[in-house]
Design brief:
Length: about 130
Amino acid sequence: MKSKWGTPDVIGIYKPLASNLIKFPVEIVSAEIKIDPLAPVVAFGQAVAYRLFSTKTYIAMPTTLTEEDQSRLESLCMLFGVGLALFDLNKDAPRFSIRVRAQRFSPDMFWVNEFADRLKHHDVEIFEELFG
């Protein structure tokens, strides 16, 4: 989608079903995944940027992260409301574990619509699957 500020590795939409009697607002959940244990600062910067259009954001980093980097990243994630998950660098069994749960924020609707527009122009089928 050609935007370093708004292209998460994973995006999901949590929305009410038509059968739900009580409806709730749509939530956009974004995640930045890094396999390089030397990239926690980049991952954090990207995840914080995704908060512009996401209700929740997560970072997923390998368990090979240094103890110091993991400690700092956990503290920053708690401070800024970003979720943190660690995983093993084993593609057959990555064993994800949540270290920090993401906080829910109200995204800026200008950026939500800008993201939705870029996604729609990039891939209409995915847009319809997520937002339709």
